[in-house]
């Protein structure tokens, strides 16, 4: 079963797993708002939002950025998918998207680009770890249509 969550989102309200009961849900965890890879990924999910809706799926983006940073990111790139702020890393850890990373020979803790597809019964149907952005949203859409 998918771990429950209730966290602040852009627009000032909260988003929780219970809000999406009976629907498929795509959670894409991204390292940082308004960086090149994260921007491409969020734009791709926004571009496909109506196709996800037709497949009975909702899409949420999650990072450790503040709500204010999420709102700036949304406005700058005209994103239509809700963006969740997980500053305390509770949801990131629960879904395995927080862990050890390395860059330029340095090891540190951070967000591992991960996508989770949850079926309409609240069960995790598929997990993509260490996601490559190009073509990823289309691949997730195909998986959402197949369940």
UniProtKB/TrEMBL annotation:
Keywords: Antioxidant, Disulfide bond, Oxidoreductase, Peroxidase, Redox-active center
Annotated EC: 1.11.1.24
Cellular-component GO terms for this entry: cytoplasm
Domain of life: Bacteria
GO molecular function: thioredoxin peroxidase activity
InterPro entries xrefs: AhpC/TSA, Peroxiredoxin_AhpC-typ, Peroxiredoxin_BCP/PrxQ, Thioredoxin-like_sf, Thioredoxin_domain
GO biological process, any: cellular response to oxidative stress
Pfam family, one: AhpC-TSA
Reactions catalysed according to its record: a hydroperoxide + [thioredoxin]-dithiol = an alcohol + [thioredoxin]-disulfide + H2O
Active-site residues, as the UniProt record annotates them: 38
Domain Thioredoxin positions: 1-147
Protein role: Thiol-specific peroxidase that catalyzes the reduction of hydrogen peroxide and organic hydroperoxides to water and alcohols, respectively. Plays a role in cell protection against oxidative stress by detoxifying peroxides and as sensor of hydrogen peroxide-mediated signaling events.
Family assignment from sequence similarity: Belongs to the peroxiredoxin family. BCP/PrxQ subfamily.
UniProt subunit comment: Monomer.
Name of the molecule in the record: thioredoxin-dependent peroxiredoxin
